[in-house]
Structures are given as C-alpha cells and as structure tokens.
Amino acid sequence: MQDAFNNTVTSSTASITVAIGTNPGGGTLSGTTTVSATGGVASFPTLSINLVGVGYTLTASSAPLTGATSSAFNIGPAGAGRLGFITPPRTITAGACAGAASVITVQLQDSLGNPVSASAGGQAFTAASSSTGTVTWYTDASCTAVAGGGAFTIAAATNSVTSSTRTPRRVGRSSASPTPPV
Description:
By secondary structure, the protein is an all-beta fold. It folds into two domains: 15-75, no CATH class; 82-178. It has strands spanning 15-20, 29-30, 34-36, 48-49, 53-56, 58-61, 68-69, 73-75, 82-85, 103-109, 123-129, 136-138, 151-154, 160-166, 174-178. The chain has a four-stranded antiparallel β-sheet, with no helix packed on it. The chain has a four-stranded antiparallel β-sheet with strand order 9-10-14-12, with no helix packed on it. It has a three-stranded antiparallel β-sheet with strand order 13-11-15, with no helix packed on it. β6 (58-61) and β7 form a beta hairpin. The radius of gyration is 24 Å and the shape is rod-shaped. The model is unreliable at 167-173 (pLDDT under 50).
C-alpha cells in the first residue's frame, strides 16, 4: 500500500485482491488471491497461472483505493511431464488406411498440458492399443512406414509426432508411454 507520494503505508492491513489483467494464454489464476497487508505489503506466495502466454499482467485492487497493474510478463511451459493425445477420439475402419482421417497425434506436454519441445536426442515412446485385434502402427498418414513395436520418437526441438494405425478390428483405447532416456 502506498500513499500519494509512493511511500509505503506501513500501518495498512487492508485486504488486497489480485486477478489476471491481460490474459493472452487464456490461463486460470490459482492460489490465494486475496490477502491482508502486513506492514503495508501484501504477499501472494501461492499464485500460479496454468497456461503459457506472452504478455500476461496482474491487477491489484483494494476498495476504495486506486488499483494497480503489473508490468507484462511471460509464462513458459514447465519441463516435459507427460504425453497427451491431441487428436479427437475416432473410429478407424478395420483393415483400411484412411490417410489423414486415421492420423493420431501424440504431444509432449508439461504437467499442466502445455506443449513442450523435446530435448536433444528427442523423446522416445511406445504406442499401444486395447483393441482385440492386432494393431499396426505407422509413422506416416499413407500407412507405408511401419513403426516397429509401436516405437516412435518426438524429434528434438519439436513437441509432437503423428502416426496412423491399421487394424483388422475396431480400435479400442490407445495409449502412449514414454521410454526413459538412456
């Protein structure tokens, strides 16, 4: 809390609320957003925003005082934490390669679902299916390059890999498991 001359009002215990001002990534602010000032200063140690973006701002308010807006800041992804399917669910026709209609895309993500680029050497993973038939995994939409054992690698400095499947029966649920780095 500051007075008209930008001096901290050390006697203030006012409640201050923080919110996202500019929200370029569509993120959600989590944590304790309203705290009481101590010695004229309010601290918000539990705040976090879940989505990456460039140019976020925060606003602080405490009625009837004039609010404040932070300088713009950027939020980047955390380290790689999971693989995620970013292709909508679909049924793939048995024995057919439907090209782009059968493509499945797996993305390397942080723990909040933000895309993360693979480090040097890439990120290997194995794809699997709960189908009752045999699933053949391909590394291309034309179903010509077989991914032996469902093994794929997300190349360094990229965040996803696309594959196609061909199966003699309807595909059930698919999964992708990362291969630990060597």
